[in-house]
Amino acid sequence: MISDVVLVGIAKENLKRGFRHFEIDSINPLTESKTHSLIKVSYWTREDYTRLNRIKKDTPVVIKGHIEIDEEYGLFILAESIYLCCWFLKLNILIYLRMSNVGRAAVKRIFTLLHAYFTWILPYSRKPSRQPLSIKFKKLKYFVLKINKSLNADMHVKGTEALPTDVKCCFLPNHLSAYDPMIISSMLPDATTYLSKVENKKIPIVGRIIAAMEGCFLDRSNFQKAIEAMLYIEKDLSEQTKNWVIFPEGTRNKDPLAPLLEFHKGSFRAIMKAHAPIVPVALYGTQNVLKSKYRLKRFPVYLTFLKPLMPEDYAEMTPDEVREKVKNMIQEEVNVQRKAYFDELETCFRTKRALKKYLKEKPVC
Q1: Is residue 74 classed exposed, middle or buried when 0-12, 13-18 and 19+ CB atoms within 10 A define those classes?
Q2: Which of 69, 96, 132, 175 is deepest in the core (most CB within 10 A)?
Q3: CATH number for the 4-85 domain, one of 2.40.50.140, 1.10.10.10, 3.40.50.720, 2.40.50.630?
């Protein structure tokens, strides 16, 4: 006996003297190239040769045994046991393949999620003052970049070089997905928090992260609490404590081909009273990252930080005028992003069949 082995292979043709070929995949760790190899397998006892030969061709199996040498066939695997891939394993594989993209990412990063949740998300959400926001933001950024990689998000980011660095500002993006805040925060250099609707507080991880980042929850059904939330943001921006991300549409735009939703003027009043810079942000592509409709090798995401509006730029303008100006700036950039997104999407499909299906449904931009 030379070495014990456990292999996953696919049954191929039968050979003489109770031997059979099995195909296995081998990966070269230096070049990361994948090759197919045929190995010879024989059973431990002659009584089981018939069982080995009866395995249907192209059936995936798990082989447990050790390496031996034969005069005629050379090196071969002497199997102690061979397990067929049962219906339970096939069912689990099918469930994984039918998961949404976020479900598959959660499976890949389950230990990262658990570690982050119990070491800093949960403790800091219960007591945000335990650590400075800058330290918590670094943890969040590292966590989100890991998740982005597992989600196969292909980021196209522009405009970060023009962001104000000597003053705290307010980022105003359009809203397409529940993942938008995390995508934006992962690309910012400085500590940032969020204004979110109070319903998001019940989402296990998202609500905890917003609380840990010292964010603010807006109760749209309670006018008094909504006013208090905007006053808190105005005070925080005036004191230059931290950056804020506010979605002026107030909710997700569920039709990515439609124009932007109406911007609410309440956030503009608070920002203008605090004399804080306004950074319009155009975002496109996040609407498919968390879904499972298409099987993509990567998910293009376009993120553009537009030219900031400094306090002196809007000093003579009304909140309505600033709102329309910001909305028009974002809409123009989103139109450019949308065209680039659909052009690139054709190169992201895993199979020709999926691409053919998509081309039949492709919208006209």
Answers
A1: exposed
A2: 175
A3: 2.40.50.140
How many Å apart are CA 254 and CA 22, to the nearest integer? 49
pLDDT confidence of 34, banded at 50, 70, 90? low
Question: How many CB atoms within 10 Å of residue 357?
Answer: 14
What single-letter DSSP state applies at residue 296? Answer: B
State the Cα–Cα distance between residues 214 and 72, nearest whole angstrom: 72
Residue 79: partners with Cβ closer than 8 Å, 6 or more residues away: 41, 42, 43, 44, 52, 63, 64, 65
Q: For the segment 48-72, what is each residue's pLDDT rounded down to a tens digit?
A: 555 667 777 777 777 777 777 777 7
Strand ranges for the chain from DSSP E: 4-14, 19-27, 34-43, 60-70, 74-84, 153-158, 170-173, 192-197, 216-218, 243-245, 278-284, 299-305
